[in-house]
Amino acid sequence: MPHTHDRAAFEACRRFLNLPKQVLRRCCTEGKISLDASGGGQQQFQALLFDCFFSSDEDHPWDRMIGRTFRQLICYFSWVAPQPDRLLIRTNTADRIASYLLPHTRVFDDGSYEHSGIAGLRVDGFSSDTIHLCHIPTGGRLDLQDTSHSTSARLMRYCFQGELESRIKSEADDGRDPVHANSSLTAAEEAASDHWAPSPSTSLRSALMARSHLWWYTLRHGAALVRPRRSNTVQCLRWDVGRSCEQIGSLLTSGPLSIPGALFTPPSHEFDVSLLRLDSVSIELRTPLVTRGTVHPWNQLLDVERGNEERRRARQLAELSPATARRDNPIA
Asked: How far apart are CA 282 and CA 265, in angstroms?
């Protein structure tokens, strides 16, 4: 089984991404943690997922699902884990998430079209607790692992079919037809290829998707892509609650979660933005309204979060009866 030679780095990475040990071990190669896709189609697919899940509500042209937006689906996620050949998302409702992500298309009388869901996405199989998805044009893979642990792949398929039928009906009411049963891309899907075509920002966007739990770990994070302020940046990632830009910049450029080659530039003055740069591409990071702590290197950040957990534990104990508190915390 793969392992890491640096246990402190492994533990820090596990805690920041909220991953089970056995899942993170699959990201280790020759004793080193590797969170990034090696390139090619998986990177393009993860960059596409980044654009979808971090889009502002209904801002993405494919964000037309009835009932939920891309960003609202995140509340069902427990964690996101990059694996050697795919992205793995743990969720409490894999069947419903898959039904929302699979594409539906409406073609208008003049030949124009609109998509709902992720164009090119298809079901690639089922296991007892996982729905396997594949993106045809890139070859990228996404596994949706359910927390319920159904007894068989057959039962997982049955639950998914029920959710899908409901989804198809809702989309039909809005004039869109399912295309996920097609073994190849439809003409309308092929016309959407700009969304997954390789670009100078593909590697950076893919890397941020692999580390998305750095934002999604807290409720009401509000993390979303907005228009950048600078003329030489491709996107701006803004969030409302969570870690500061300096903390995020430190995590992404040093320590076990770092993006190889990435550089962080703090704002030069009060009204400036932070920059995250990889190769020739920069993305703006906008300071959250509410932050936790100040600037810390990754190992000190871990101590800060441990302190937060200890304080939460102390508050829970304080709410218990004196006898129960003494039993659960005999040192106090």
From this structure: 10
